[in-house]
Queue: 3 jobs
Job 1
Amino acid sequence: AEHLLRSKTLKGKKALVSAGPTYEAIDPVRFIGNHSSGKMGFAIAEALYMQGAEVTLVTGPTHQQTAYAGIHVVPVVSAGDMYDACMAASPDAAVIVMTAAVADYRPVSVASNKIKKNAADWELKLTKNEDILLALGKQKKAGQFIAGFALETNNEREHALAKLQTKNADMIVLNSLNDEAAGFGVDTNQVTILHRSGEEKKIGLQSKKAVAEEIVSFIITHVHAKP
Ligand code: CTP
Ligand code: CA
């Protein structure tokens, strides 16, 4: 019966959301990852779905589950897998929201057997992962609305504005880790939306679900707006 409660605001529009961390394998038992819980991404996917969008949610490893069977969940592990899944789903997406905490680097090679401890120190060689949001921004279609997130601990606004520009995004959601009630694991969040027009909107402390709903309503009011 979930479809009966959905609004028709985004009916017929496709949305692509990335969520969670990525895991970059070192060997069969180890990986490089991060503390992303996936909560914001799942909440945004659900808010878009409840506004009527056809949602593809590309998610790294998390404990999140969605109650909405209509959301197309694509589970991935590494940044490379997430890149491929997002590229595949992006061409006909009207709204793209990249919330994933994508690992910036991966090991140059993945050992096929468990790396054994030995007397010497171990140096792990890393190489940079593809930036998914940047790639999507470069090939942005007319009418496509692209949102990113920025998790910052210092010079927050400046860093977020740089990301807005460099990645050719329409908006960036600034998440400040200086705030105890915001960020990893917790159920609440407090963010600032920076739109490419210069408009800014502060979204006060509330549940991640409520923050997601506010982000989605901001997207809806800006999705048709010209630059
Ligand atoms: N992002 C992405 N692919 C990557 C890295 C980041 O799609 N390989 C996206 C994130 O999902 C987020 C935005 O880019 O929407 C900003 O991510 P963030 O980690 O804050 O910024 P980076 O550009 O990676 O820069 P840094 O980590 O150095 O701050
Ligand atoms: Ca990063």
Job 2
Amino acid sequence: QAKTAGRSTLRFFDPDMQAAVTQRATLEGELRAAFAKDEFLLQYQPQSDRSGRVVGVEALVRWRHPGRGLVAPAEFIGLAEETGLILPLGRWVLNQACKLLARWQSDPYLAQLTMAVNVSSLQFRDTSFVEDVLRVLAMNGAPANRLKLELTESLLVENMEATIATMEALCAHGVGFALDDFGTGYSSLTYLKRMPLTQLKIDRSFVRDLLTDPNDAAIIHTIIALSRSLGLEVIAEGVESIEQRDMLARAGCHFYQGYLCSPALSEDALQRFVRDRVG
Ligand code: C2E
Ligand code: MG
Ligand code: MG
Ligand code: MG
């Protein structure tokens, strides 16, 4: 039945679907307005080394919704991508992150930190992306070699040559690249080798059951071996327990991010967190 209906047939008789459409339209309107109302904010999740020292942060966007409180990115990034709103939002995120990165430079401890920023593929594909990133860095007086852009594997397979060209243009200025949620997509090893990457980021889903699922443990060992042979740093995300961290350390993982160290923090809380740990 559905197969013969044809692609152009509109079907609006499903009340659940109608409700979803309305809800989506509401969310889209609110998302557009959120910009003008300055409702977005960034939080920063620490990344630590084996000794527990904070070496960097990942900037994570949140939406302070008037009725719903702090909304997680999973609830609006997808829609922002579909509607193109991710372009101005992504630029805003990058600007905020670079502003903070510049401010850190006058502090002996904070100046050492790297700032990781998530970049969605639509943003990365934008013809002015390289120019935008360099301008935002320069405008804020932020050091390019402290900025790390997090890309996902899907981006790499879409248009390899253009992706490499964009990465190399930024890499020449010192910008680093992390491959986010690594292991959940499908990267060809040849491509990985050609890409100017700094870091592989082991996806949280492999870390979660690391202690009980031998397959996850095997995958983690493989990713770490791979990063070593490619000369890349490796960081694990979603590290929640000491046992997970110890196991990762034994497997040769360099860096950790997760609730064990800290959840994402406000700018002020992060500064206190870093300074407290330096002693
Ligand atoms: P991600 O880049 O993989 O970020 C890590 C996510 O894992 C964050 O969720 C973080 O809060 C969460 N997390 C960190 N440690 C733990 C842990 O120990 N246990 C568990 N269960 N979770 C942990 P969040 O902030 O909700 O972000 C979700 C995703 O939204 C991010 O995944 C990223 O893909 C996307 N995102 C966030 N900010 C931005 C942004 O500015 N731009 C774009 N394009 N995407 C963003
Ligand atoms: Mg990320
Ligand atoms: Mg990730
Ligand atoms: Mg993830």
Job 3
Amino acid sequence: MTTDNSSMESVSHEHRKFPPASEFVKSAHISGEAAYKALYEKSIQDPEGFWAEAAEELHWFKKWDSVLDASEAPFFKWFDGSRTNLSYNCLDRHIEAGRGDKIAIHWEGEPGDARDISYKQMHLEVCRFANAMKARGVKKGDRIAIYLPMIPELAIAVLACARIGAVHSVIFAGFSADSIRDRVLDSETCMVITADGGYRRGKMLELKQIVDEGIASCECVKDVVVVKRGDAHPVDCKMQEGRDSWYHDLVANVDDDCPAEEMEAEDLLFLLYTSGTTGKPKGIMHTTAGYQVYSYLTSKYVFDLKQDDVYWCTADVGWITGHTYIVYGIMQNGVTQVMYEGAPNHPDEGRFWDIIEKYKVSIFYTAPTAIRAFMKWGDDWVTRKDLSSLRLLGTVGEPINPEAWMWYHKMIGAERCPIVDTWWQTETGGHMLTPMPGATATKPGCATLPFFGIEPAILTDDGEAVEAGILAIKKPWPGMLRGIYGDPQRFKDTYWCKWGGKYYFPGDGARRDEDGYIWILGRVDDVVNVSGHRIGTAELESVFVEHKDVAESAVVGVPHEIKGQGLVAFVTVIDGREQDDQLRKELVTMIDKSIGKFARPERILFSSDLPKTRSGKIMRRILRDIAEGKELGNVTTLADPTVVQDLQQQYLKG
Ligand code: ATP
Ligand code: MG
């Protein structure tokens, strides 16, 4: 991002505003704007008092001596002196309160097999597997890699680690053998938990084989535990003598009772590598007590969780969204949730809506990339289904284009459900900017306002406050990362150096509007300076997808002799529509009208697909490399490498 202090062109043309329905407001935890403002003020004036009060709702073996200890900043400590356990707060606490028979997880496999698991059963499974791990010699502090499909054993393995104080490092089960190797070596994991396979679009992915290849040269791995998923699809799963064991064998002969380890506040809970949208993934460290309180409270308020809700987050547990908003935050709140193994378009494009209808899902949390896919597949898949159980919708992962937001609001939310557009990161542990569903009037494409205790600022490189610039976070918060594994210097350099340690630097650009709402403009690298006009590429993309023939688009900045930077647009057209100069002209006219002639792209390229991470985010850095004719940077986190080859060829053709 450029360093001048001029404020950014106000390129947004989005003025629609949607207050929450009065029905929703009436019974919401945070009811009405004034209630949000009052509690927010309190959380900023007296953060320690605010967080201590939240922590009181959970179980502690021993309470804290101090709420926040900033004496070694940026290595902050939260709830220092306390002892607690996340698995206890996710499971035992509900059983003690007499809610053990409540369903924790309605699990649905891709082929249609299903399991309902109560909190009591979950507790039992977690205790058994925790004992099995102990029997294999796993100790507190050991790093355990988990490479599993979205089956209950994934949540069980995560909670079993937390129960005995082992550090889990979940690797999304779509990653390659090389990605497994990098992560296993970086964190020196001693055990890998995997499955023979997992279903994806009707096919069986042979996960154990990928693990074998990935860890072939990793001497640190002493144990591989394999869950049998493929009964109907027997997989040729070679077990290595002395290293590999079947999960079902290990849990067959162990004790049901496994008391939760009393963990210190700053004991490492998990490692999770970022999605790699901007480069090589970073091993983010999260610790126990602060993350516990933050994941609990953000879940409760942002999803307005009530005891009779059926919640469904479509993310994989392999991403931070699944850690916080499938496992820890949601289960600490003791609600019932749906967990689904497979693809949204198997056996057909209506699968998600079938699941919502079947389980009467009331809260639905998904990603913009999924919403854009649903739009592309057409409304018929949705209108045939009964989605009347829904009361709240959410999105996460990327800026959501206003067009996609409106579709979500109308087609899925029936104009009745508030949408929480939640901005946060692997590093932040939980939601940072988000509407409060019963309080905040939402605007399409806007993450709106800070969560309690979060004090955002928008700054220049020099730390001057501006309307549009670089997003910064002023106060520490309990869910914050505590480091990059094995590299404290990189942790300081990446997140704390930009403004002399006074602010956390998330790496995203943002703009504040006349209501004080914050709009995320994309990564700082994606804010482009064209002849002195600073443009968030996300805003151009949102204009393009308003065109009826456009499914998706990505815009990047490239060096330009006269303008400093110019823009190149990659546009994906809806199946069967024309991609020609006429469409290019129409797109340029739209840019002229909604942003201005200065934002006209130098080139508009049509492409059948865009390069994405395995979590579905558009990788603009690769498009930048293509547009500059450079060698491509780190591509290991790319979901489908062939997309890039096609684009490169097309780009060269002109
Ligand atoms: P890496 O850090 O390795 O490049 P990543 O940033 O994609 O990968 P994540 O932690 O999964 O890894 O993603 C966080 C980023 O996703 C945020 O910094 C932001 O750019 C984007 N993001 C998440 N939610 C939103 C949202 N609601 N609106 C806009 N952007 C979002
Ligand atoms: Mg990031």
